[in-house]
Each structure stands twice: as structure tokens, then as C-alpha cells.
Amino acid sequence: MIETSGKVLAAALLLGAACAAHAQNADIVSQMGGEKEIRLYKSPSKKDFAGMIPAQGFPWKVKSKSKGFYEVATPAGSGWVNSLDVNTAPTAMVVCTVPPGSKSIAGSMNASSDRCRQP
């Protein structure tokens, strides 16, 4: 029998929530393979094919993710797209409790993802 502490369980739940949040904070930036149209589905299932929509007007905001599909609202309509049909880019945001210095030059901590770390 495997025993887990409350801290391990909390860490696992936090990691799961972070993964779900990552998908929801992504933008669809392009379609795979340079196709002119993308398949749209009524639900996150290949059985619920709704039709083809133009692959334009990127980036599309991802509202949610389920079963390998992204729920999106596009200029041509709303629905679900297969995650294998599109390219995504995560939305990056840095929030510092103490603002970094005003200089941002290569070789300094202000130019990297560690910009909030104080020397």
C-alpha cells in the first residue's frame, strides 16, 4: 500500500490545475500543414463533425481543452478543433512582487525569464 502525505496530494492537484490552465491560456496561431480550412466539431469528438471553416483570423483564443480538442471562437464560427490540426503558443505573463530594474540588456537577469529574481 502506498501512503501519500497531504503535501504530495496538494502538489499533484496543483500540477494538474496548472496543466489545465496552460491549455486555456493558449492561442491557436496557425493550422498544421498550411491547409486553407480547418475541421470544426460540435463537441470534443470526431463523431460530431460540423464542417470546414477558413484557416484565417489568427490568433484564436482557446476557451477550454477536452479529449485532445480545443474549444475556440473564430471569426467564422464557434466550436471545437482537433489539437492535431493546429499550432498553439502559450500566453506568457510575468508578474513580479518587486519590479525589476529599468535596464533590460542581454546578459542581465532582466532579459530572461528570471527577471523577477533579485540579486
Radius of gyration from the alpha-carbon trace, in angstroms: 19 Å
> Strand percentage, roughly?
25-35%
Please list the strands of the largest sheet in the order they lie side by side.
Answer: 6-5-4-1-7
| Low-pLDDT sequence parts | 11-23
* Percent in helix: 10-25%
Query: Helical element count?
Result: 1
From the coordinates shown, what is the CATH architecture of the domain at 26-90? Roll
The geometry reads as elongated
Task: Enter the CATH topology name of the domain at 26-90.
Answer: SH3 type barrels
Tell me the CATH superfamily of the domain at 26-90. SH3 Domains
Keywords: Signal
Signal peptide: 1-23
Short description:
The protein has 119 residues and is α+β, with helices and mostly antiparallel strands.
